[in-house]
Design goal:
By secondary structure, this protein is an all-alpha fold. Helices cover 77% and strands 2% of the residues. It is built from ten helices and four strands, in the order H-H-H-H-H-H-H-H-E-E-H-E-E-H. The strands form two sheets. The protein has a two-stranded antiparallel sheet. A hairpin with a 3-residue loop joins strand 3 and strand 4. Helix 8 (294-333) packs antiparallel against helix 10. It is elongated and about 90 Å long. 36% of the residues are buried.
C-alpha cells in the first residue's frame, strides 16, 4: 500500500472524529472550516477537557475509597497528557499537511511493491495490537465497575469529582455511564489522531531510508550490467546522474527529521514521561494491594502494557531509523564507482569519485531522532526507561513495606 493511500486514509479518519483536515490536497476529504464542523469539534473537546478537569479535582479534593482515589490520580495524569498530545498535533496542522506531501513524494518513484507491502503489514500489526491493548484496559475497567455493582456498590470506571462516592441517584448513575462512553470515544481520538498517527510516521520514515538503500543497490546492479556488456560510457553516465539524484533524495529525507520532531516531538516526549511515571504508580498499586480482584488487576496490567508498548513502538522504530540511515553509507560505497575506468571518472562535468565521497560524508553523519532536541529516541533509551522505572518502583516498594 502506497504512502499516499495510507496517509490519506488516516487523514480521513482524523477528519471524521473531529480533529480537522490534515490532507494537503484541497477539496478531497472535507471542509474543516465550516461552522457546524467547528462547533461539533469544539463540543467534543469541551467534553474531554471537562471530564479531565473533574478527574483532576477528584484526585486533589475528592473523598473516595483508596482504590477509586488511585484510579482518579492515574486517569487525571494520563488524560491531561492525552489532551496535551492531541492539542500539540492539532496546533501543527499546517506543518503536518506539508509533511504529508513530502512523505508521499520523496522516493515515490523508487518504492518497491514488496517493500511497501511489508511496511503496511508492520503498521497494521502494530496499530491493531495497540488498539486491542488499549481497549482491553478499558474493558477491564468496565468489568471492574460491573463487579462493584454485583458486590452492592455502584458502577464506576472514570472517577470524577462529581458524582461523589455516596451519591447513588439516577443522575449520578447516568453521569458515570456517560463518562465511560466519553472514555471510549476519547481513546479513539487518542489512538487515531495521535499515537498510531505518530507511530505510522516513524515507520514510514524508516522505510524511506530502506528505499534509498535499495535505490543505490539497484544502481550498482545496473552499472555492473553495463560494465559487463562493455558499455562503460553509458555506465559512467548512469552512475553520475544516479549519484546526483540519490544525494538529493538523501538530503531531502534527512531534512524531514526536523519536521517530524516539530510535529510529533511533544507526543513522543510526553509518552516517555507518562510511561515511566504512571508505570511506577500502577506497579505499586499492584504490589501493595492486599486483595486485588482479577478485573482490577487486569485493568492495571493492561494499562502498564499499553504505556510501554506504545513507548516501545516509538523508541524502537526511532532507533531503527538510526540503524537504517547508517546502512546507506555502505550502499553508496558499493554503488559501482570502482568499475568506471579512470578516463571516464569525470563525465558531464561531474566527478564520480567526488560525488561518491560527498554522498558518503552526508550519510555518515549519525541521524538520531530526538524529542525536544534533547531526548534521544533509541533502543538504549527504551531500555534505560525500563530499568529506571523498575529501580524507582523497587525503591518505593521497599519503603512502603
Amino acid at each position: 500500500m502506497r504512502n499516499y493511500d495510507i496517509l490519506k486514509t488516516y487523514c480521513k479518519k482524523i477528519f471524521l472524529i473531529g480533529n480537522g483536515n490534515f490532507w494537503y490536497e484541497e477539496n478531497t476529504i472535507g471542509d474543516d472550516r465550516g461552522l457546524f464542523y467547528r462547533a461539533c469539534g469544539a463540543l467534543l473537546f469541551f467534553v474531554y477537557a471537562f471530564m479531565t478537569v473533574l478527574e483532576i479535582m477528584a484526585a486533589l479534593m475528592g473523598d473516595f475509597p483508596e482504590d477509586e482515589k488511585r484510579d482518579s490520580t492515574s486517569f487525571a495524569v494520563s488524560h491531561t497528557i492525552v489532551m496535551i498530545k492531541i492539542f500539540s498535533v492539532i496546533a501543527n496542522k499546517s506543518l503536518i499537511k506539508t509533511l504529508n506531501h513530502k512523505m508521499v513524494t520523496v522516493c515515490q518513484s523508487y518504492e518497491e511493491q514488496p517493500l511497501m507491502a511489508e511496511k503496511y503489514k508492520i503498521m497494521k500489526i502494530n496499530v491493531v495490537a495497540y488498539f486491542v491493548i488499549v481497549y482491553g484496559s478499558c474493558a477491564c475497567f468496565v468489568f471492574e465497575g460491573l463487579r462493584k455493582v454485583f458486590a452492592g456498590s455502584h458502577f464506576v470506571t472514570v472517577v470524577t469529582y462529581y458524582p461523589s462516592f455516596e451519591d447513588d441517584s439516577a443522575l449520578a448513575m447516568f453521569i458515570r455511564v456517560f463518562n465511560t462512553l466519553v472514555l471510549f470515544v476519547m481513546m479513539v481520538t487518542m489512538i487515531v489522531s495521535v499515537d498510531s498517527f505518530t507511530m505510522v510516521y516513524i515507520i514510514m520514515y524508516k522505510y524511506k531510508f530502506i528505499t534509498l538503500r535499495h535505490y543505490f543497490e539497484k544502481m550498482r546492479e545496473e552499472v555492473e550490467r553495463l560494465h559487463h556488456a562493455g558499455d562503460n560510457d553509458l555506465a559512467a553516465e548512469k552512475l553520475a546522474s544516479g549519484l546526483v539524484e540519490g544525494i538529493e533524495m538523501h538530503s531531502t529525507i534527512i531534512k524531514l527529521s526536523k519536521d517530524i520532531d516539530t510535529a510529533f516531538g511533544t507526543v513522543m516526549a510526553l509518552q516517555l514521561c507518562q510511561s515511566s511515571g504512571s508505570a511506577v504508580s500502577i506497579l505499586l498499586q499492584i504490589a501493595l494491594a492486599d486483595d486485588l480482584k482479577f478485573a482490577a488487576a487486569g485493568k492495571l496490567i493492561f494499562f502498564v502494557v499499553a504505556l510501554f508498548f506504545l513507548l516501545g513502538l516509538f523508541l524502537c522504530n526511532a532507533g531503527e531509523i538510526t540503524h537504517q540511515a547508517s546502512l546507506v553509507s555502505d550502499a553508496i560505497f558499493y554503488c559501482g564507482w570502482q568499475l568506471v575506468p579512470p578516463r571516464l571518472n569525470t563525465t558531464s562535468r561531474r566527478n564520480i569519485r567526488q560525488l561518491v565521497l560527498l554522498a558518503m560524508m552526508q550519510a555518515q553523519r549519525p541521524l538520531v531522532m530526538k524529542a525536544f532536541k534533547m531526548l534521544e529516541l533509541s533502543y538504549g533509551t527504551f531500555l534505560l526507561v525500563l530499568r529506571s522505572t523498575y529501580s524507582v518502583f523497587a525503591l518505593f516498594y521497599a519503603q512502603n513495606k
